[in-house]
Amino acid sequence: MKRQDLDRLIDEGRPPNTIMLFGESHFLIERYIRQLSVPDTNTLSLYYDEYKFNNAKAHLSQGSLFGDRNLLLIKSEKKIAKKELEIFLELCKKNPDNIFIYAYFGTDFKKSATAAFNAKSGGIALRLFAPFFNEAKAILLQEAARMGIVMDNNAAYHLLDVQNNDLSLAYNELSKFQILDRPITTKEIDDLVFGLAEVKVDQLINRLLKKEDFRADLQHLLESGEDEIRIITALSTFVTQLYLFYIYIKIHGAANSAEILGYRLPGYVEKERTQLCIRFKQQQYDAMLELLLDAELKMKSYGAVDKNAIVLSTLLHLQRLI
User: Fold this and answer.
1) Which of 238, 233, 203 has the alpha carbon at shortest distance from 221?
2) How far apart, in whole angstroms, are the C-alpha atoms of residue 248 and residue 258?
3) Which of 183, 164, 160, 182 is nearest to 173 (CA)?
4) Hey, what CATH topology would domain 201-321 get?
5) Fold match flag (3-127 vs 133-193)
6) Which of 5, 107, 141, 243 has the fewest CB atoms within 10 Å, i.e. is most exposed?
7) Has residue 40 got a pLDDT over 90?
8) What's the CA gap between 210 and 279, in Å, rounded?
9) How far apart are CA 214 and CA 208, in angstroms?
10) What's the CATH fold of domain 3-127?
């Protein structure tokens, strides 16, 4: 089954009563658990090492004097034996009021893990990949609306951006905005997601590439526990993105972030990237990327190396290149 098929069944009020959720996106697994968990059910939740076959089987086998539905939810990083899964599926097939949700958080996605969930058993297995940026933004906006939070595209983009496109982290921040009785903008995100005195990596990058003094920002980041390698990789990613803008503008005469990146940046961000990318020439991009890759390799290759010193010397060298 594909995600859109499951979404359609949920929207139509016909969700499956037996399903295995697995894959790379733990956020989506948890989201579908919330959507598929029927309220007012007799629920047994078994998390990780709590799973015991006999307890789970007994829960689905029991009848109810009051007509309640039995829901079995298993979250595990370990595979459950196929024979045990088949018994749970058979119990749900005999009694369609039963619900069985198997959330597998492991990393072995071989077919054997989902073999019990097939047309004969009536079970559905759904692999959930990490969503693309635009899809993640749409999901974030849906969750914000569900929580009564008014947020536009620019704010959702900014929240994902400051959380390095991690949908789980961005979603976890939404609860902070429920106390505000007003639409959420980038200002509220900067105020609440980051402390007013906290320095972000992208602020460091902007100072660096504009040839401003960045050393206080760098020191603040390192003292707050920011990883040196992440600073270099974040800068490499940013410079690479600027280079893509630079090449696209040379060919087409104007920037189009949707075609360059696969998703559209907010207008003000696209304008900023456009203005910044044309400051540098081809040779400077080549030199910057070579310098950053070399610095990353040094930090990853030598365990006892002074990473703080490498970061500082690399950023100072990069400013001389531009």
Assistant:
1) 203
2) 11
3) 160
4) Zinc Finger, Delta Prime; domain 3 (1.20.272)
5) no
6) 107
7) no
8) 9
9) 6
10) Rossmann fold (3.40.50)
Q: pLDDT class for 7, splitting at 50, 70, 90? A: very high
Q: What is the DSSP letter of 125?
A: E
For 112, the token pair is 């054997």
Secondary structure letter of residue 44 according to DSSP: E
The end-to-end CA distance of the chain, in Å, is: 51
| Lateral strand order in the sheet of 99-104 | 42-47, 70-76, 99-104, 18-22, 124-127
- The neighbouring-strand residues paired with 186 are none
Strand 42-47 to 18-22 pairing: unpaired
Q: Are 131 and 139 in contact (CB under 8 A)?
A: yes
Q: What whole-number distance in Å separates Cα of residue 90 and Cα of residue 264?
A: 47
* 278 CB-near residues (< 8 Å, 6+ apart): 246, 249
Nearest to 159 by CA among 179, 175, 146: 175
Distance CA 165, CA 162 (A): 7
Residue 218: half-sphere exposure toward Cβ, Cα within 13 Å: 23
DSSP string over 253-306: SS--HHHHHSSPPPHHHHHHHHHHHTTS-HHHHHHHHHHHHHHHHHHHH-TTS-
- Beta-carbon contacts of 111 under 8 Å, excluding residues fewer than 6 positions away, are none
Question: Domain 133-193: which topology?
Answer: Helicase, Ruva Protein; domain 3 (1.10.8)
Q: Which of 33, 23, 50, 36 is nearest to 104 (CA)?
A: 23
List pLDDT tens digits, range 105-164. Answer: 888 887 766 889 988 888 999 999 989 888 999 999 999 999 999 999 989 988 988 777
